[in-house]
Backbone:
């Protein structure tokens, strides 16, 4: 009995990640969709909002223009960049008539910059289908074709793709998996999102969102999410509430994104989104959103408790029963993170450093909660709705 009880007490720590891994196996993938363009291929307008994206814009645009989809226009919206993004974009446009570069007008009060740039691009687009994609993405030649075919097969008004997350630095490999694992535990597989019965259970990935112009216009375009920091999540929820079909698919071989390139960027990026945007994913309405900051802090503390107890047990500060309890949890958790890192095509050795990732997550979450709905991004300050 002395062994059974501590083992039973490990279940709250080890059951959720195991269930999460099982659920994640059931994923709708673009790999299962035809890469042959339809006979009547609708014009697709790919809209790329870009503010100070000189580091990324050439790679992104070159990959989009390499698409094998036959009916394509690309619109870059230069959002008052100061780093030469516009100059680089216009140099690209000079060599391909499918590409246009336009300047975003002055940002109106109450709008986030990205949403305003997307709305500006949509107003200039001619396509029957609109794709909103980030400047730090890279598109495979078959991405657009598979996405267009998947949208038609599923009858989707909004189709979004979860791609591969590139991690080039030590800190990216420490923090990024923490956030994406939390998202996976919250939403499960794409099929769980696609079969959702509540708006809070749907999500979109702003790195690639394809919508029909008819639905986008009827919903009011980006005006409906103009003041939401996580505009992708908000757009998916608004489409769902309006009775429109939202579809999430995995496209690890078709889409990749290098979100952040340094520790400072990782902390700044997730500090912007994790609280002000994440609270809209909470169940329970206003009471659930009020509880969210507590849960955001409790999550990393909950994960850190076993490794702390293990260290204390090993140095004799806690009894042997704590060693058994913490050892089982840490062992299973390391295996869980090894599976995550293998999935993300990164050395499984990083699994041993998962407590460091939790510490940094706690730091990011604490700062985000302290700021509340006030966010700052790319030299602009906002208050999220």
Residues:
């Amino acid at each position: 009995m002395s062994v059974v009880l501590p083992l039973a007490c490990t279940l709250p720590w080890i059951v959720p990640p195991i269930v999460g891994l099982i659920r994640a196996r059931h994923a709708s993938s673009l790999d299962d969709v035809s890469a042959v363009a339809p006979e009547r291929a609708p014009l697709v307008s790919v809209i790329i909002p870009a503010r100070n994206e000189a580091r990324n814009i050439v790679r992104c645009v070159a990959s989009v223009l390499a698409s094998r989809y036959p009916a394509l226009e690309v619109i870059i919206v230069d959002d008052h960049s100061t780093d030469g993004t516009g100059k680089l974009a216009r140099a690209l446009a000079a060599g391909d008539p499918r590409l246009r570069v336009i300047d975003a007008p002055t940002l109106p009060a109450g709008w986030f910059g990205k949403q305003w740039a997307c709305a500006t691009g949509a107003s200039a687009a001619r396509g029957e289908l609109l794709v909103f994609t980030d400047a730090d993405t890279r598109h495979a030649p078959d991405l657009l074709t598979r996405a267009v075919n998947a949208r038609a097969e599923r009858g989707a008004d909004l189709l979004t793709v979860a791609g591969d997350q590139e991690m080039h630095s030590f800190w990216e490999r420490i923090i990024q998996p923490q956030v994406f694992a939390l998202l996976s535990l919250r939403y499960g597989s794409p099929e769980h999102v696609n079969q959702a019965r509540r708006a809070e259970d749907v999500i979109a990935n702003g790195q690639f969102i394809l919508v029909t112009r008819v639905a986008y216009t009827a919903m009011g375009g980006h005006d409906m999410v103009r003041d939401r920091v996580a505009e992708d999540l908000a757009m998916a929820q608004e489409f769902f509430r309006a009775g429109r079909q939202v579809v999430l698919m995995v496209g690890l071989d078709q889409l990749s994104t290098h979100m952040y390139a340094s520790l400072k960027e990782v902390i700044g990026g997730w500090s912007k989104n994790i609280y002000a945007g994440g609270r809209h994913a909470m169940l329970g309405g206003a009471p659930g959103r009020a509880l969210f900051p507590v849960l955001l802090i409790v999550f990393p503390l909950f994960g850190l408790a076993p490794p702390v107890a293990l260290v204390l047990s090993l140095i004799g500060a806690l009894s042997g029963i704590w060693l058994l309890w913490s050892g089982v949890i840490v062992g299973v958790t390391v295996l869980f993170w090894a599976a995550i890192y293998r999935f993300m095509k990164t050395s499984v050795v990083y699994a041993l450093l998962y407590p460091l990732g939790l510490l940094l997550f706690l730091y990011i979450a604490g700062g985000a909660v302290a700021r509340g709905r006030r966010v700052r991004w790319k030299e602009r300050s906002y208050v999220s709705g």
